[in-house]
Predict the 3D structure of the following.
Amino acid sequence: MKNFLRFIFVIIILAVGIYIGINYNEHRRAIENNNLLNNNNVIEKEENRSYSNNENTVSNTENDFIITFKEEENVVKTPKGFIAITNKRNVPKIENKNNPEAAKKIENELLKISDAMWNSVNKNADEYALGMDEYLDSNSEIGVSYIISTGNQNDKIITFNIETSGSMGGVSWDNYEGYNFDIDTGDRLTLKSISNDYSKFTKFITGEMEKSIKEQGILDDVKEYISMEEGATLENKLIEYEKSGNWYFEDDKLVIAMPKYSIGYGAMGTIITNIKIEDINEHLKDKYKL
């Protein structure tokens, strides 16, 4: 009987040892896979960038900009090796043989904007991917795209639009931005830098936004959302359009694009106000009148 009990005890010890060993190896494999993922997330590195030949040329009498975009992909995998999230962006390269300083300044500014968003998107993707093995049994097709395109162009200002779209399985990242640059200096423009009377200009824009929100039938929802923030008022929240990226020129209008959660619930998305150029020209410096 004693020999039998000893035999059973040895079997139990061996079984526990094998179980611990298997789980330890699985844990190490998950860590190694994740480390490999973190080291190889970006398929195309900065030093290996090559630009497409699909050129969009912007011209005026003194300056010729050649703008090309190169696509980048970041594939994030789960610890078990399934593709969890695929994020995409395009990287601009801007050249101008007559004004290389302005071209480089615009390119660097767009890269700074894009890199900040790209790092945020991919950091979130890494965190999401770690927990996706619980319900993922094949490659996923979800992801976020951050795409820059040339927008309004004239002999004074060049605008770049940026559209964020997609999700990581939850709330969408959909958003619209626009950035405006002086075509001669390459400086990123602010509403203050283009206006002849900033106070009057902002008062006019705020009034137009409130009128537009009312016409869209969402004024009560906007006021309700703003009221949840202590001390916030419609006027001081609407002024957030001043932030770079929240306004841009498009065709014959100034577009104010308020990101979701800035003045409204997420389900309301980006809240847009369009103001005709002819209505704002009196507020612009002579150099920027359109």
Summary: Helices lie at 2-40, 100-130, 191-194, 198-215, 219-227, 234-238, 277-280. The chain is about 40% helix and 25% strand. The chain has a mean pLDDT of 80. The chain has two domains: 46-189, 192-288.
